[in-house]
Amino acid sequence: xxxxxxxxxxxxxxxxxxxxxxxxxxxxxxxxxxxxxxxxxxxxxxxxxxxxxxxxxxxxxxxxxxxxxxxxxxxxxxxxxxxxxxxxxxxxxxxxxxxxxxxxxxxxxxxxxxxxxxxxxxxxxxxxxxxxxxxxxxxxxxxxxxxxxxxxxxxxxxxxxxxxxxxxxxxxxxxxxxxxxxxxxxxxxxxxxxxxxxxxxxxxxxxxxxxxxxxxxxxxxxxxxxxxxxxxxxxxxxxxxxxxxxxxxxxxxxxxxxxxxxxxxxxxxxxxxxxxxxxxxxxxxxxxxxxxxxxxxxxxxxxxxxxxxxxxxxxxxxxxxxxxxxxxxxxxxxxxxxxxxxxxxxxxxxxxxxxxxxxxxxxxxxxxxxxxxxxxxxxxxxxxxxxxxxxxxxxxxxxxxxxxxxxxxxxxxxxxxxxxxxxxxxxxxxxxxxxxxxxxxxxxxxxxxxxxxxxxxxxxxxxxxxxxxxxxxxxxxxxxxxxxxxxxxxxxxxxxxxxxxxxxxxxxxxxxxxxxxxxxxxxxxxxxxxxxxxxxxxxxxxxxxxxxxxxxxxxxxxxxxxxxxxxxxxxxxxxxxxxxxxxxxxxxxxxxxxxxxxxxxxxxxxxxxxxxxxxxxxxxxxxxxxxxxxxxxxxxxxxxxxxxxxxxxxxxxxxxxxxxxxxxxxxxxxxxxxxxxxxxxxxxxxxxxxxxxxxxxxxxxxxxxxxxxxxxxxxxxxxxxxxxxxxxxxxxxxxxxxxxxxxxxxxxxxxxxxxxxxxxxxxxxxxxxxxxxxxxxxxxxxxxxxxxxxxxxxxxxxxxxxxxxxxxxxxxxxxxxxxxxxxxxxxxxxxxxxxxxxxxxxxxxxxxxxxx
Amino acid sequence: xxxxxxxxxxxxxxxxxxxxxxxxxxxxxxxxxxxxxxxxxxxxxxxxxxxxxxxxxxxxxxxxxxxxxxxxxxxxxxxxxxxxxxxxxxxxxxxxxxxxxxxxxxxxxxxxxxxxxxxxxxxxxxxxxxxxxxxxxxxxxxxxxxxxxxxxxxxxxxxxxxxxxxxxxxxxxxxxxxxxxxxxxxxxxxxxxxxxxxxxxxxxxxxxxxxxxxxxxxxxxxxxxxxxxxxxxxxxxxxxxxxxxxxxxxxxxxxxxxx
Lengths: 852, 259
Ligand SMILES: Nc1ncnc2c1ncn2[C@@H]1O[C@H](COP(=O)(O)OP(=O)(O)OP(=O)(O)O)[C@@H](O)[C@H]1O
Ligand SMILES: [Mg+2]
Description:
Chain A folds into 5 domains: 1-60 and 261-404, no CATH class; 90-223, no CATH class; 410-455; 457-529 and 713-852, no CATH class; 547-699, no CATH class. Helix content of chain A is 57%, strand content 17%. The radius of gyration of chain A is 33 Å and the shape is elongated. Chain B is an alpha/beta fold and 259 residues long. Chain B is globular, with a radius of gyration of 18 Å.
């Protein structure tokens, strides 16, 4: 039987090519993702090892608070250095500064980290060659308050040369430095894509942290002193009450690494999920191929049964075929994945993200999942057709095989509905319930819904075809009518093809709906709550913004009623991490609609805090409740809740304190505004005011002036980026489904060879044959698309309903995207039809009639 | 050569006395469909096929010949009645046992599409043994292959063989596993008279030299002339029999039915 299977495989090899391609693509994606993450991870590991190889111990503050985006740790003072250097076993100890920084390039553009792209980091120059891996490659090291050096990549990208003046916006104001040298990090130039700008230590400390303070103290041991011993000595020597942490160099390096580790794990997971989605779509393509092969080989299978093959043997032979296809596709997919990994990491290498000396990481065991999934998917998808093949009665060998009757029975409807209902149930439960891992439940729910709809598909494909194709039938004559009857004639086959398209399209439109709903919700919130006319934004990531002088100067303009700055720090409220927003509570209602549920904002001037109502509900806070606010670097302070506010704008995040109080507790680098909201006077000359404000803003890089439209745009732009990114990943699934359409049509043309020959003999022109195949393809693709869009919109609607308190206040249908999806589907259908149509049109009439 | 027509006794009644029969049908009835659409293809047929006998089944198109044969061969199930191969009652067998019975005890030759297109002639011949996981009896396979004259074509695929050669491979396959009985449904229906004569000659030799039991459906009086006995079917029932038929006697009988 193995022989029968392998021979069959060889004979049908060409008909299995596209199936193999489809599995290959999915596997390549999974395997490629693995190679990329492994390589990038290794590169980062090496970079960290490089960076901290000479650091034997680190002393830093234990006072730290963090939210999802940033971390704030209290600095350590230089007064500790003398103590540290006196500890036996210490060879050297230096303060280290490492903070985000901005640089104005020669064209006037501000380069900084804006949550996309590579960070630019400000550092202090350390002479000790073991404690720092930066080396001067041109010019000299910085010394004094007016000098800096930078890495070669940043210099080349921004067009700086040694001797140039470099403008750097700092918390204390914009300063001009001289570029006195170029410094390269280890052998790679920059730190895994992050650029470095280095000042001498006092300058870096003063401008980026605080005078005579640093982020941590790096310690190098005397030869022969191991890290753990050093750590213990240091621990004993530093004051115990000073909230200091002493780590070995290794632990410190591991910690830095593990922060990235999680990030890479996440990336790998995301890539794997999309690979699985692609393979899920591929399942339908495989299923269809094997179903078609079995129909085409029904007589052969019946003959095998007649001469004594058991059902098991028939299933077995099909399974062997599927296994071989899966194995070949998975192995080829892994090779393609390695090639993909090579391509992407080379690209990442060009931007410095991956070190050129890091070899492509090919760990064979890591490919096991890709291999298993590739083979597994093929087997699972082939199982049902194989089972059906084994049900072919032996008598069929002697009779003409009856055409797959339309058995859209009640059982199918019942099963399909039940599975879809279960899927939707899981989806809703996952979205609404409080689950640890809602994503898995939601994913399974969606998957089941797709399967349910796919099971139901044969029931609705026929009627839908008639609706969609009726105009084509009328419009394109015989060819159109043939296209329509062909699309409807084998509902099960059309259904599987339709389902593949449906899934890709559903996910694409689902993401589009989420994006649109988020955008609409966000826009709505801004419309309803922002009373300011302009927003001045510091744009760069980090806690350090533009000097408060900006708000002061803008506020002093004639046409401006209020210019209110917002600054941000991190801390803890009753031991839970919180973002702390400093502003002027009295002026606040001028620029933001803020519902004071309870209490009075004016109380903030006396040192009270305002909390959002969600937080109040969560922690049982009321006006007057005593709370402990622990500001990083200052320590706990007793205060009370002065107001409970309800603002969609803050979405439950962050506690408000008075600006004066903020400036008392946070360092000078943070006494800067991240945003300034500007409200014009009622009788202002708007155009004149804008020009006046712009003139001020220009003097405070990197601030930029946005009117409300631009502000809204800037607030929603990240949503578009994410939607676009997910779309790019989903493209694979969509391409696979289109290949599925192509595949089905090719196989159908093969199956209908004789029929096509008869039609041609009866006088149908090549053009008509092509047209009929073309319209059949378009109809099938469009059905999949329409059903997919419907499902995608429904999923989106469900999510938006369930996520009302997660920032979804409105449901938005992305009509433009929906139209684009329909248009793309139409074109993709046309493209997919080219090859089968050509095939069909070029059949030799006589040979076709003789074809069995 | 003409044999005088001898009226035959009625078919022997069913019962344990029929121990020598290779296959028997006992009050076999096959109805397709149900209700208004019901078609009785085989109507209360009782018949025996003796060991080492070559029986031909004849009758007008639609008379139920193929249906009867399929049911007797375990390819299809009866609506009522019994079918025995040797002393095994097929109506009592499950799907699995039926498969095994077909594999080990029954051989088939169809009118066309007898061969698995992806296997060579030789592989097709040994297919039933391969399926059973049994090693073919090489000497016997050689004999069979020699008999049907295929020795130099064994490595060819069906598509590389003529229709006649394909049928010879089919005959060889049916013989190769030494089944208790071979069923052939119009095995020469697609062949010219010379090739038909060759194929029928092989079947005849298999009966004479190797004591093979063969049941063959045919429309061709000349083909029926090779058999030991002809059974006539009309409208699902057996209507007549000729023992030791010749082409002429069969033709004569067919004319009388107005066929
Ligand atoms: N699968 C089926 N479903 C319904 N009716 C059937 C089926 N197979 C056969 N029949 C009917 O049963 C009757 C006998 O058919 P059968 O194929 O046995 O005839 P036959 O004698 O072999 O004819 P021929 O000489 O044309 O091959 C016919 O009326 C036929 O229409
Ligand atoms: Mg027949």
